[in-house]
Amino acid sequence: MRALRETIRALVILSVVAVVGLVGWGYIRNHPQDAPWTELDLAQAPGMFTGRKLAGLTQDFGKCRALLDQAGVRYAVMPARDGEHCGYADRVRLQPGGASAIRFRPAELRTSCPVAAALAMWDWNMLQPAAEAHFGSKVTRIIHLGSYSCRRMYGRDSGAWSEHATADAVDVAGFVLADGREVSVLRDWKGKGEKAAFLHQVRDGACELFSTVLSPDYNAAHRDHLHLDQAERGQMGGRACR
Ligand SMILES: [Zn+2]
User: Fold this and answer.
1) pLDDT the model gives residue 15
2) From ligand 1's centre to the CA of 9, what distance in Å?
3) Does residue 223 share a domain with residue 141?
4) Rounded to an integer, what distance in angstroms lies between the CA atom of residue 100 and that of residue 124?
5) Percent of the chain's residues with pLDDT above 70
6) Domain hosting residue 90, numbered range
7) How many CB atoms lie within 10 A of CB 8?
8) Whether the predicted pLDDT of 163 surpasses 80
9) Start and end of every Extensin-like C-terminal domain (predicted)?
């Protein structure tokens, strides 16, 4: 009797494991971006590990370029720049006309490849749907304050070097819509209007794609821009979203 109970118990546990396994396998098949071991595809909707995979591209410029090519993003490779604390080997200039129609103001934006890849995904998956929902319009330009800058964090004389020192960050000050309207982080972050709702929504969306996202909610130094970077903190490393 006891042996029979044990056998039934074992069978029940096995069946539960099998069902959970099958459901999990089916889920990952339909949501490959939610598994840590699947290949990144910029054209897929972001999943749980997309942000970490994007930051991981810092180690592999060739793969990052291949992913941009595969997704139809147009870009030009910029010459490398050497330095003790500053410089880059993976800087690209995003160009409109491919899969991403987004332009920039000022017109030139040169960032590390992982930042560029995340910007393309931000455009497709967050900026355009959010602009459609809040304004019934499209985002045509990202207003930015630049990427590369050889400096330490907060421009201090000592301490950690900024991700800007390797072009692995971009500061976004606002957006221009197809109907000519502008959304400004400095002017529109606060309040209950559509512009504030849009800005908070795209900030939250950026947190899925960038390792670090700092907004006016974080501190006064970020009152006029969203700081987005791809600092590498490993597969299970922490991510900052403030
Ligand atoms: Zn910044």
Assistant:
1) 78
2) 57
3) yes
4) 7
5) 99
6) 42-241
7) 10
8) yes
9) 63-242
Determine the distance separating the centroid of ligand 1 and the alpha carbon of 171, expressed in angstroms: 5
Q: At a CB cut-off of 8 Å and minimum separation 6, what does 90 contact?
A: 58, 61, 64, 80, 112, 113, 114, 167
User: Looking at the domain assignment, is residue 35 inside a domain?
Assistant: no
Q: In this structure, which amino acid lies at residue 10?
A: A
Q: How far is the CA of 145 from the centre of ligand 1 (A)?
A: 8
What integer pLDDT is reported at residue 133 of this predicted model?
Answer: 98
Nearby residues for ligand 1 (ion, Cβ within 5 Å): 169, 171, 227
Instruction: Provide the pLDDT for residue 178.
Output: 97
Residue type, 212: T
Measured in Å, residue 7 CA sits from the centre of ligand 1 at 61
Three-state secondary structure call for residue 48: coil
CA of 6 to the centre of ligand 1 (A): 61
> Do 50 and 114 share a structural domain?
yes
Gap between the Cα atoms of 153 and 175, Å rounded: 25
The per-residue pLDDT for 130 is 98
Answer for the pair 109, 118: CB distance below 8 angstroms, yes or no: no
CA of 146 to the centre of ligand 1 (A): 8
| Count of H-run helices and E-run strands, the chain | 7, 10
If pLDDT is split at 50, 70 and 90, which confidence band does 29 have? confident
Q: How many domains does the chain have?
A: 2
Does 20 share its domain with 97? no
Q: How far is the CA of 149 from the centre of ligand 1 (A)?
A: 9
CA of 228 to the centre of ligand 1 (A): 6
